[in-house]
Amino acid sequence: MASTDLPPIMMDHLYSMDDGLKAGGPLLPLEKACEDPVVGDEPLPETISVVDPASVSRCCIEKGLFPAVPLFFQHPCSISKSLSEWVDRELLDPSTCDILHRAQVLEAIFLSKLWDIHIEARMLRHVVRRWSKATHTFVCSWGEFTPTLEDVANIVRLPVCGNRSPFDIALTPAEIDTLAVLRKGAPTSPSTALRFSNWIQHFGNADRQGPWQLAAFVSLWLGRFVLCDFSHDCLHERVFPLALAIVRGDSIPLAPVFLGHLYGLLDQCQILEKNAAGTMGVETLLNSGFLQVFLWEHLKGLDVCPLPYSHALQSADMGNGSFMPGSLPLVCRWFKRMQRKGQNVLRLLDDIERQPLGSLRDLLTPPGQTTAGT
């Protein structure tokens, strides 16, 4: 006789509802707003739900609509020696730096050789579950906040504007030939031809030169750091036309693309958790490194110490003559940082600094120096 016992429900043991977000606030209509809440045919703003609770995972979990299952952040947030060496080698060439500068991605690519962000999984699991699919904002006790184009430009140094639409890239015959080489990938089995490690080993080989090399390099950067959602260890072909446009010096507005991609993956987290229904964990490839730094920049009471300028400069400058920006990008001060253990992070999630990020030069200018124009 078959057993009628139901399988145990998988639960996220890092997750707690004791986070300070209570009924009311931005999630529900204010009670007793006024005696006559209607003016004409429309209610006053105080009587309208700012955020639909059904669009927020945390509210759905609280109501018992689905359980909180483990969320696993699979976006690659560390670097490899072979990747760093390839970045350094490409940025030793002044002509390559000139092309990437015209495309407004030189500093962003420079950062890819240093990108090493420690992920605080417990904090991120709570923050991601406060995301509203309806408003594309995180909900907290006083209202809402969300990553903006300014955050993307400051943290990952992607261009906000450009001269080429990412959705309208015409290729020359020579670029079509290069596209064929990229689609073929590394000379391995078809299932592993676009794997990051094989890609670096094949296209990043200093002894193997060709007209496709820079496009292969930019493709890896795009697929790993900007638009990673197909696999945590594999390129997607959709980045190849973007890479070909960049290596001819076209500037593509990658910051809006990155931000929209992030919003989409945050939406997906709720859908996957709901569909999991307590039977399995959920993996996501949202850029957890960016989200982690965004929170470190905006959570006021969090005890995590950024690197001093001298240490950040030392970790960024390998002393090999490769490209160095005039002032260090903001994110450099968060590489290899960790939060102090034992903090009640849940009580800090509503203590958000809503002011814009400071100037990069103000934040990471060497002591005793002034910036241009000051």
From TrEMBL:
Origin superkingdom: Eukaryota
Q: Which InterPro entries does the record match to this protein?
A: AminoTfrase-like_pln_mobile, MAIN-like
* Pfam families for the chain: PMD (PF10536)
**The Aminotransferase-like plant mobile domain, residue ranges:** 114-352
Q: Name one GO biological process term.
A: meristem maintenance
Which residues does UniProt assign to the signal peptide?
Answer: none
What protein is this chain from? Answer: Aminotransferase-like plant mobile domain-containing protein
Q: Which species is this record about?
A: Prunus yedoensis var. nudiflora
